[in-house]
């Protein structure tokens, strides 16, 4: 046997002795550690599966509550959600509290809705994204039922450039400022939403619409009374033409007033407008008729002059029926115009 072979054998025996010595000291603990590791792994896997099963069951209950709310049964939905808050698993208890806020909003109870959202936002055990979303929901409700300070108190911290919910937070603050009459602040926030390419299409479209409303000068208050409609412009009623002055006839030799038809001036009727029915204006009489009180359809026809004119041929008397002809007035008596008094 060479020296090298002897040395190698001695080294192997020494290593075996050291391994046996270490195993005798730590072998038992090593086995215990391996067993513990296996048991812990199995327990973790089993617990995870149990939590998943419980979360699935809570999800099913949550969907049932949503169906009740959609079916118009808010009280039953709230009862189911409250039961889920008490013994639910996963994030469903927090989601149930937020859903209760949504149901209260649909019922027209903004104070109860804000209280539900604030409870989630103040819960340190809830996930931070859910807490932030609850604060934004409360701010949207307070846009209509609260003040601009209430809105800022909840979402002012979320309006920074690095916040994932900065767009809805800015929109809530802008709407509250617009309702409060702070047009400058509202315009700046809406302009940021329009200029930021990261804003969603819905928020960007609403912001653009609000910019148009502000530019048009629409009233900020939602409950402001609408402007009174302008009164219809009344067409001026043309005044009736003044009656021609009466012309006194010269006294007759026997003291009676004789009215000569030829001496009464007659007014030329105005030419009617094209397409319009001609209107006849009757002078005012002692009976209270005529003038502006007489409608065109009620006005009497103008009195025609029956006195013969020298240069006009007279119609033969035979053409007039005897029953309709009137006897000539005796001399010295006034001649009444034909047609009667209207």
UniProtKB/TrEMBL annotation:
Region Disordered: start-end pairs: 225-342
Protein name (Swiss-Prot/TrEMBL): Ancillary SecYEG translocon subunit
Taxonomy, superkingdom: Bacteria
Any GO MF annotation of the entry: protein-containing complex binding
Homology family: Belongs to the YfgM family.
Subcellular localization: Cell membrane
Listed Low complexity bias regions: 225-237, 265-278, 326-342
Membrane topology designation: Single-pass type II membrane protein
Principal subcellular localisation of the protein: membrane
Regions that span the bilayer: 26-47
Source organism: Aurantimonas aggregata
Record-level GO cellular component terms: plasma membrane
């Amino acid at each position: 046997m060479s020296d090298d072979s002897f040395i190698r054998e001695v080294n192997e025996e020494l290593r075996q002795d050291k391994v046996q010595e270490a195993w005798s000291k730590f072998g038992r603990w090593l086995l215990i550690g391996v067993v513990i590791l296996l048991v812990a792994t199995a327990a973790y896997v089993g617990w995870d599966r149990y939590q998943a099963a419980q979360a699935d069951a809570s999800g099913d209950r949550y969907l049932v509550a949503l169906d009740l709310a959609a079916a118009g049964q808010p009280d039953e939905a709230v009862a189911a959600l409250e039961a889920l808050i008490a013994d639910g698993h996963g994030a469903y208890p927090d989601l149930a509290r937020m859903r209760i806020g949504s149901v209260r909003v649909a019922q027209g109870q903004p104070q109860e809705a804000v209280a539900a959202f604030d409870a989630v936002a103040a819960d340190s055990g809830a996930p931070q994204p859910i807490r932030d979303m609850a604060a934004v929901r409360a701010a949207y409700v307070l846009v209509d039922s609260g003040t601009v300070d209430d809105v800022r108190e909840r979402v002012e911290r979320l309006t920074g450039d690095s916040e994932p919910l900065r767009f809805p937070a800015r929109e809530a603050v802008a709407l509250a400022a617009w309702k409060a009459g702070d047009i400058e602040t509202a315009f700046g926030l809406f302009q940021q939403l329009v200029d930021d390419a990261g804003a969603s299409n819905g928020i960007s479209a609403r912001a653009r619409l609000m910019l148009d409303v502000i530019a048009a000068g629409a009233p900020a208050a939602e409950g402001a009374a609408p402007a009174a409609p302008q009164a219809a412009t009344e067409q001026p009623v043309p005044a009736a033409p003044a009656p021609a002055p009466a012309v006194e006839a010269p006294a007759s030799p026997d003291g009676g007033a004789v009215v000569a038809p030829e001496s009464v001036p007659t007014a030329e009727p105005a030419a009617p407008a094209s397409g319009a029915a001609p209107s006849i204006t009757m002078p005012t009489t002692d009976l209270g008729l005529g003038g502006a009180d007489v409608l065109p359809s009620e006005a009497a026809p103008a009195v025609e002059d029956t006195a013969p004119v020298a240069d006009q041929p007279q119609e033969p008397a035979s053409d007039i029926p005897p029953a309709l002809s009137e006897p000539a007035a005796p001399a010295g008596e006034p001649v009444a115009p034909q047609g009667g008094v209207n």
